[in-house]
Design goal:
alpha/beta; Rossmann fold; five-stranded parallel β-sheet
Length: 312
């Protein structure tokens, strides 16, 4: 009986979280879902790492201060009611965040709220506990495409094999965690399907979430981002219709690089029906492993010091 009472203290909001390894199409999917007239999906609030500790350590006022500093919304006025000013525990934190998201969605005339953040691949269980009616959308992309794209960014792993290792870990974390949820609470989609068959993929997500598909979800002009003034710089192609030619771009890379990527994620990629180029799991030679370690360190230094000869 005690457990039932505790469970009732968590918010009952029907919400959704978009997750997936970086460079897997999470931003594109977020914008498509956000174009729905009933769904608001914010851009990387990262509520557990960014806000939970603040609330648990310093309380509601400190949390409101941090949120208002971001310039997103007037958190103090939203959280002014006394019902949210109880003891600082995880259940109260969930109620606070649900209230913020709910009011933000209401201000846009929308019924459901959500957030997209790649790092949620490691937080599915925690989010499912805090928000018992949350729905999870996991988007997965071919690791060879992810690795070759991710290593070129200023925030990801410094080499393609390191990116492939991170892909395997994150995708596995999310896959295993979502297996523990009921079938009604989650869906996994492939980036390749979203590009090749966007309407059908979105229809599948909408049907499982419990809303009707809307054609404007396919219109690039309605995919509005949130909370990041540098969004267009970080994702320069996200406002354009998905290009199928991008799906095959990784095949133009050298067989050696592709082999070294597959060596790091061979088993996990096959679980998603990505066909390896190698008949069995390859092994990266010691000399190449040393090369990638050195290259990773040099590129890390370049990111900090902007060394011209290491620019790509």
């Amino acid at each position: 009986m005690t457990n039932n009472r505790i469970q009732l203290r968590y918010p009952s909001d029907q919400c959704l979280f978009v997750l997936g390894c970086d460079r897997s199409g999470t931003t594109l999917l977020q914008r498509m879902l956000n174009a729905h007239s009933k769904i608001m999906v914010t851009y990387e609030w990262n509520i557990l790492n960014r806000y939970e500790r603040v609330f648990l350590d310093h309380g509601l006022e400190a949390l409101a201060d941090v949120i208002e500093e971001s310039g997103v919304l007037k958190a103090h006025s939203i959280l002014a009611d006394q019902e949210l000013r109880g003891r600082a525990d995880d259940q109260s934190f969930a109620a606070v965040m649900a209230r913020l998201f709910r009011e933000q969605a209401k201000s846009q005339g929308k019924q459901y709220w959500g957030d997209k953040y790649p790092g949620y691949t490691r937080k599915v269980g925690r989010l499912a506990e805090l928000f018992p009616n949350a729905f999870f959308v996991h988007i997965v992309r071919d690791p060879r495409a992810v690795a070759l794209s991710w290593e070129k960014t200023r925030w990801g792993p410094n080499t393609a094999p390191a990116a492939a290792t991170a892909w395997a870990r994150r995708v596995e974390h999310a896959r295993v965690a979502m297996q523990d949820l009921s079938a009604e609470r989650s869906i996994a989609v492939l980036y390749e399907d979203l590009v090749n068959h966007p309407e059908q993929t979105l229809r599948n997500i909408c049907r499982k979430f419990g809303v009707d598909f809307q054609p404007q979800m396919l219109e690039t002009s309605t995919k509005t981002g949130f909370n990041n003034p540098n969004l267009d710089r970080l994702h320069p192609l996200v406002n354009l219709a998905p290009q199928r030619s991008v799906l095959e771009k990784w095949k133009t890379q050298s067989p050696r690089v592709l082999t070294h990527i597959e060596a790091r994620c061979y088993d996990e990629m096959q679980k998603w029906n990505y066909v390896p180029l190698n008949a069995k799991q390859p092994v990266v030679p010691i000399a190449w492993r040393a090369y990638y370690r050195l290259l990773g360190r040099l590129r890390s230094l370049h990111r900090r010091k902007h060394i011209p000869f290491l620019s790509r």
